[in-house]
Amino acid sequence: MTKTFRILMANQPKLMRELLVEMLEEESWIEIVGEVPHESEIRELVQKTAPDLLVVTADKPGRRPAICDSLLREFPALRIIAVAPHENYTVCYWASLDIHADDVESSEHGFLGAVKNAAQIASSGSKVN
């Protein structure tokens, strides 16, 4: 990756957020632009930090968290990954309002792969394999 990919971490349980941040900080092409513990603060921090990717908490399998629709309307270039704090729960990735979620393997490798795909889509419009 040549361009820094800016990520805002939001809303997961603190331990989960810290583990994901720690994993992502190992990647030289990623910049963590902030952490948001409460959903009510997400929109303001998205406006302030202009992230390429927002990582939020998913409450139900295969369902986009409610905040995603309004954020994707207001910030159409934003990419969102919803991660569940529950064991064996699917990670879902949304690139825009008009596509369905892609299920991602619930593992460090699966999450990092989704982040790489989001970065590639943001920079060139095609998926990274």
Explain what the structure shows:
The protein is of the alpha/beta class and 129 residues long. Helices cover 36% and strands 23% of the residues. It is built from 4 helices and 6 strands; from the N terminus they run βαβαβαβββα. Strands 2-1-3-4-5-6 form a 6-stranded mixed β-sheet, with helices on both faces. It is globular.
Task: Give the topology, please.
Blueprint: E1 5-10, H1 14-25, E2 30-36, H2 42-49, E3 53-57, H3 66-74, E4 79-83, E5 91-94, E6 102-104, H4 108-124
Parallel strand pairs: 1-2, 1-3, 3-4
Antiparallel strand pairs: 4-5, 5-6
CATH superfamily placement: Response regulator
Q: What is the β-strand count?
A: 6
Q: Quickly give the CATH architecture.
A: 3-Layer(aba) Sandwich
Total of domains: 1
Helical amount = 25-40%
Low-pLDDT residue spans: none
Separation of termini? 13 Å
- Main sheet specs: 6 strands, mixed
Secondary structure tally, helices: 4
In short:
With 129 residues, this protein is an alpha/beta fold. It has helices at residues 14-25, 42-49, 66-74, 108-124, and strands at 5-10, 30-36, 53-57, 79-83, 91-94, 102-104.
